[in-house]
Amino acid sequence: MRTPLRLLLLAAVLLVAGWLLVPWEWSLIDDGQAIGHVRTIGAEQTAELYRYTDATWGLFRPAFWVYMGTFYLLPVKIAFTVRMLMLAVAVAVPACLVWRRSGSGPLAAWAAILLAGNPSLLRNLAYPSLQEGPGVALVALGLLPYRRPWPRLLLWLAAAWFKSPFSWLLVCYGLLLLVRPGERRWSDRLHGVVALAAGVGTIVTAYTYSQAGEYTAALDFGAGKLLGSALEAARQIGPPLLVVALGVVAFGLRYAGRDLVAWALVGGGAMYLANLLPWKTDEHYAGPYVYLLMVGVVLSVRPTRVPFGAPGGRLDAAGTAAGAAGAATGTAGALGRVALVAAVLTGLVLTGVGGRYVYRNVANTAELESCVLGLPGRPVIGYNRQEGAPRLTELAVLRRPGWAGQVVWVPNGDPGDVDYYIHQPNYGPGSPQLMVGGPVCVTPLATVYRAR
């Protein structure tokens, strides 16, 4: 069985296992409200509503408006399956390209583990309304070897219309098409101009929107904020770079020569990161720039040896197996094998961190929903998570339309006139006076107390 098929089968098994094991439920961010909109005013009006809302927030993301009007027509398990497939595409396409270029199955597996070990990106499975997941899937589809660049430009533009910092990918790609050395065809110049215009146009439009937005008013260009964001970005990039360094040792990776797409990915990832410095570079925001940088790396290197079981072990200048031209033996071969095992384990740990986050957050919502629906009478339930309170009410009503209870936000320290109280520690210390009645339910991230 060929290596890509093995990888696809393994990915399919993992996806099915995840689908079966995780108690999929809509999240406490956006979802309940979006479903309510779609069911009451329809898909088209929901998209228009989000366009209007984003205009007041200062966000330009037209693909997201369409997404919000259509995605929430799906049943919850199908919706999460679609989100899983988005991330699967983001990992599988670059890994298959690595295998196609190098002919090395272990190198393709290393690339897949590197890209999957992105906990910030995996958070997109917990929150279906996040735009980063569709964005990286569209970027990955744009990497396929099309005969002409037009499909790539359209896919990357769609990504930019989900999340405007992806526009830098178009800007970098357009500039590289225009300035690359050697003979340039007229079509290259045309594609470069179109890519550059699309990227710059999106950036300018997004900037114009941001000038009058409530959400974007929180941007902070102070030196302290920019430095703090840069340090956080370094922390986010550090673990994947460790996997890359181990890959260099394991495969003897060398620079493969100028590749416009790889360079565009690295440049686009760096500019995406720079774009986020006045905002946030942690949590789910980090996922795309880490992804772009790492895909740029895996597409710009070639192996010079195979650590395990290859005939001959050495690779020729093109990065393909060179027969029995000398196995990777002795100290170098042993070191390469140890490095590959360490890279795999590091990547799996990072993937596990992201997977644990997804499971705990999805299970938390499902268990909180079941708990509040099981409370007697018409309970008023306090919650120290501001957005979570109305979203939990909406999800409970969606699950049981006749439910007469209500979940309300109770700020930390507020006494609150409620029957029950949900305390989620990562949103603050809560209100101790509401936690004296003993726990009613305990979920992965929160505890429900009887408040009186």
Please render the helix and strand layout as text.
Layout: H1 3-21, H2 31-57, H3 62-70, H4 76-102, H5 105-116, H6 119-122, H7 132-141, H8 150-160, H9 167-179, H10 186-210, H11 223-251, E1 254-255, H12 260-276, H13 286-298, E2 301-302, H14 330-373, E3 380-383, H15 388-399, E4 406-409, E5 420-423, E6 439-442, E7 447-450
Parallel strand pairs: 3-4, 3-5
Antiparallel strand pairs: 1-2, 5-7, 6-7
Helix pairs in contact: 1-4, 2-3, 2-15, 4-5, 4-7, 5-11, 5-14, 7-8, 7-13, 8-9, 8-10, 9-10, 9-12, 11-13, 11-14, 12-13
Describe the structure.
With 452 residues, the protein is mostly helical. The chain is built from 15 helices and 7 strands. It has helices at 3-21, 31-57, 62-70, 76-102, 105-116, 119-122, 132-141, 150-160, 167-179, 186-210, 223-251, 260-276, 286-298, 330-373, 388-399, and strands spanning 254-255, 301-302, 380-383, 406-409, 420-423, 439-442, 447-450. It has a 5-stranded mixed beta sheet with strand order 4-3-5-7-6. A hairpin with a 4-residue loop joins strand 6 and strand 7. Helix 1 (3-21) runs antiparallel to helix 4, helix 5 packs antiparallel against helix 11 and helix 11 (223-251) packs parallel to helix 13 (286-298). The chain is globular. The N and C termini lie far apart (64 Å). Mean pLDDT is 90; it is low at 321-328.
Q: Per the principal axes of the C-alpha atoms, what is the gross shape?
A: globular
Strand content: 5-15%
Spatial order of the strands forming the largest sheet: 4-3-5-7-6
Radius of gyration: 24 Å
User: DSSP helix count?
Assistant: 15
Largest sheet: 5 strands, mixed
Mean pLDDT: 90
Approximately how much helix is present in the residues? Answer: 55-70%
Poorly predicted runs: 321-328
Q: Output the helix-strand order.
A: HHHHHHHHHHHEHHEHEHEEEE
Number of distinct beta strands? 7
Estimated structural class:
mainly alpha
**N-to-C terminal Cα separation, in Å?**
64 Å
